[in-house]
Amino acid sequence: MGGHTTREGRFGHRRAELVYDDAGEGPLAVYAHGGFVSQAAEDRMGLFDWAPVVKAGHRLVRYDARGHGRSTGDPVDSDYTYRSLADDLLALLDHLDASEPAVAMGASMGCGTVLHAAVRAPGRFSRLVLLIPPTAWTTRTAHARANRRSADAVEREGRDAWLAARAQQPRPAVVADVPELPPTPADRLLPAILRGLAASDLPSPTEVATLRQPVLVLGWADDPGHPLPTAEILAHVLPRAELHVSRTRADIRTWGSRIAEYLSRPLP
């Protein structure tokens, strides 16, 4: 990554082996990806450029969520709720012997993971970066219903039928040119992951408002799965948040540099 050697690591936690990529030296920054992808899948999609974060002097650890990519998992719905995934993130910090508060970054499902971990253990995090916050609170109900229907469809008709239905849904214009890749979880895990996500929500705005870390919120426009009102509410209720919204693919490509610059600022 950006000329830096990337090391692969792994550790066991709650019946799963979680695999991560470890690059660079300096203060620790961990990143949690979105649902159904993996670190390798995100790299192939060319969605986010993490090289500036490493170049700016951070140790960047990106891990494959339970049941995704190289990480293993069981077909247990409750293993894939945001709360459960937050437990995996805190276990990763334990495994890395993170004695100082770390930066936590997460996209979509990873955003939910990071927020639940921060609400549960705020002292473990120095700053947060929340990328494309997902449907939450009032918009979550319909999304959860769709996920439960998808889980039933996968069990009844198989993965290909579910993927065909997904392919009919319009894509946000800002990411229309991003390659679509097949989901990384094994077929046997997909229904459990879908139901776990259906049972998830972000912490309440009241809980989120208790967080005192500086927070950078990055959203993009016109995506029902990651609606801007979620990002705007988070930026409003978090005491030390700033929001940046992208409306073009070119602007999304600046996110790595934006994050690196944000993390390089002295902590207030």
Produce the secondary structure layout:
Layout (H helix, E strand, L loop, with lengths): L5 E8 L2 E8 L4 E5 L6 H7 L5 H5 L3 E5 L18 H14 L6 E6 L1 H12 L4 E7 L8 H18 L1 H9 L22 H9 L6 H4 L6 E6 L7 H10 L3 E6 L2 H4 L2 H10 L4
Parallel strand pairs: 3-4, 3-5, 5-6, 6-7, 7-8
Antiparallel strand pairs: 1-2, 2-4
Could you explain how this protein is built, in words?
The chain has 268 residues and is α/β, with parallel strands linked by helices. The chain is built from eleven helices and eight strands. Strands 1-2-4-3-5-6-7-8 form an eight-stranded mixed β-sheet, with helices on both faces. Helix 4 links the parallel strand 5 and strand 6.
Quick summary of this structure?
The chain has 268 residues and is α/β, with parallel strands linked by helices. Helix content is 38%, strand content 19%.
Write down the overall geometry.
Answer: globular
Percentage of residues assigned to helices: 25-40%
**Major sheet summary line:** 8 strands, mixed
> How many β-strand stretches?
8
Radius of gyration of CA atoms, rounded to a whole number: 17 Å
What is the element string, with H for helices and E for strands? EEEHHEHEHEHHHHEHEHH
Q: Identify low-pLDDT runs.
A: none
Strand portion: 15-25%
- Structural class label: alpha/beta
Count of separate DSSP helical elements? 11
Distance between the termini: 29 Å
Tell me the strand order in the biggest sheet.
1-2-4-3-5-6-7-8
The overall average pLDDT, rounded, is 94
